[in-house]
Amino acid sequence: MVRQFRVISSRQLEYVRAVARELHFTRAAEALRIAQPALSQQIRKLERQLGVALFERNNHRVRLTPAGAALLDHAERILSDLAAVEEEMLGWATGARGRIHLGSAHGLTVRLARLLTAFGDAYPAVEVELREMTSAEQIDDLHAGRLDAATAALSSRVDDVRLASHPLGEEPLVLITASTGPLAGERRMPVAALDGLDLIAYPSGSVVWETILSALAAAGARPRLRMETRDYTTARALAGLGAASAIVPRSIAEEPGRPVHVVRLEPEPVWGPVLVWSAIRRPGPALAAFLDFATRSSELTVGG
Fold first, then answer.
1. Residues 62-66: contacts with CB within 8 Å, 24+ apart?
2. Looking at residue 223, what is its pLDDT?
3. Mean pLDDT, to the nearest integer, of 59-83?
4. Which of 19, 78, 134, 222 is most buried when burial is the number of CB atoms within 10 A of its CB?
5. What is the DSSP string of 186-215?
6. Whole-angstrom Cα distance, residue 273 to residue 270?
């Protein structure tokens, strides 16, 4: 016998999302501005409706069941789509306005700031929420609908049919050290010479770090990883102080700040950022305006 389901409402999905985010019914109820007993009752009602438990509960904790996690994935996408529909209709009615959720590769922060300043002047009714993330995090959030667009660092062309992209050039990755350090006299070095060097690492999920690791492995070099940071500006500051050397995009090395000594590597690793967005979801007026503005501008292009 086929079970007949009632249609799940957007309000029910909001309840599930709130409890999943807080993993606490009282805090979720406060966030939703409803009474906690009413929230618990609505969740139990939905579980009866679906015939599955969405949350495991005891006196000490609340956690998602596998079915609850599956429903949460759908809820995130559906609620994001509903918000986008409302925003798009408002935009078509009143001109480009609304909010864009934009992911940023760390190496493009300064360039992106200049672009967003110009975009804000041209489209004052559009708000941009900017999040600095690794490329892997950006791609995951694009697929989940948590980001509208991203400037991600990718080691090769975008071959995911769910994504549209616009290349933003290429530039070399360079070694930076203290301006008075032992490498201050070097202008070029083979990657193999980095064996044993104190080096600053970047987190897993960073395509730039994966590119660096690939170049080191190909050269048989095994540097000592002394510390890790998500931020190239922090890596640049640490390298300038002599804490360890760092490998960064050339534009980061050339930014104003504490002096650093720049060494070109042979063979030279490169990074190539791209502007990416969903090829499945149609852009609303705000996102369409941003994509048009960004792809016509040279502000984000590296390597020039």
1. 62/19, 62/23, 62/24, 62/25, 63/23, 64/20
2. 96
3. 91
4. 19
5. -SEEEGGGGTT-EEEE--TT-HHHHHHHHH
6. 10
Quote the Cα angle for 153-155-156, to 5°.
Answer: 115
Which pLDDT belongs to residue 5? 59
With beta carbons less than 8 A apart as the criterion, state whether 65 and 54 touch: yes
Instruction: Please classify residue 284 by burial: count the beta carbons closer than 10 Å to its beta carbon, then call 0-12 exposed, 13-18 middle and 19+ buried.
Output: buried
Beta strands 260-266 and 246-249 are unpaired
Tokens of 249: 């995009």
Instruction: Kindly tell me if the per-residue pLDDT of 115 is higher than 80.
Output: yes
Asked whether the beta carbons of 25 and 62 are under 8 A apart, the reply is yes
Average pLDDT rounded to a whole number, residues 291-298: 91
Q: What is the pLDDT of residue 136?
A: 83
The least confident of 3-12, 65-74, 267-276 is: 3-12
- The residue with tokens 């490169």 is 270
The predicted model gives 38-52 an average pLDDT of 94
Q: In terms of Cα–Cα distance, which of 125, 141, 136, 134 is closest to 77?
A: 141
pLDDT averaged over every residue in the chain: 88
Q: Which residue has the tokens 């360890």?
A: 244
For the whole prediction, is pTM greater than 0.85? no
Q: The tokens of 20 are what?
A: 């999943």
Helix (H, G, I), strand (E, B) or coil at 257: coil
The H or E element spanning position 12 is helix 10-22
- DSSP class of residue 183? T
Length of the chain: 304
Q: Which of 133, 136, 144, 213 is nearest to 173 (CA)?
A: 213
Q: Which two tokens stand for residue 28?
A: 């979720």
Scanning the structure block, which residue is given the tokens 């032992």? 182
What single-letter amino acid sits at 89? M
pLDDT for residue 156: 47
250: its two tokens: 């050339």
